[in-house]
Fold:
Amino acid sequence: MFLRRLPLLAAAALLLGPIVGPRPAFAGDPSAGKDVFRSECSECHSLREGRNKKGPSLFGIVGRHAGSLPDYRYTDALKQAGWTWTPQKLQWYLSQPARQANPGTRMKYDGLDDAEQRDDLISFLGTLH
Ligand code: HEC
Structure:
């Protein structure tokens, strides 16, 4: 009985694998990421180049060196962070409170627990160039 159903199970696995299986890194959905940005980040960040709010503009953030906008007054903690905002670095940074990732930073954010939301958000941010 079970064996006769195997081909069906295999077909289901093939169809569902990409949905329920392990997700490739950063295969996020940018349009969902835009909503994550609106609800989680837009209070403090603009996406417009040169427009800083409480936090610096996030236009072109993927690939940018930390603390490097000339027209934003960063904390020393962020200026001296010494890293570049790769997708991997953003994943790491946003998965925990900002002050834990970068002690001394002024960014008051407790982190985004949902890995899928982080993927979506980071792929959205990656479209802004
Ligand atoms: C309550 C305000 C606030 C929220 C919410 C917030 N941030 Fe920030 N963010 C800041 C501030 C302020 C800084 C500058 C920190 C410093 O100079 O230490 C910053 C800095 C950053 C930086 C470093 C930028 C650079 O030029 O190096 C990144 C990246 C960042 N935020 C991403 C995000 C993302 C993505 C979200 C949403 C998930 C978010 N932030 C939510 C206030 C916030």
User: Anything to note?
Assistant: Residues 21-25 have pLDDT under 50 and may be disordered. Helices lie at 2-20, 30-40, 76-79, 87-94, 98-101, 115-125. The two ends are 56 Å apart (CA to CA). Residues 40-41, 43-45, 54-56, 58, 61, 66-67, 69, 74-75, 77-78, 85, 94, 105-109, 112 surround heme C (CB under 6 Å).
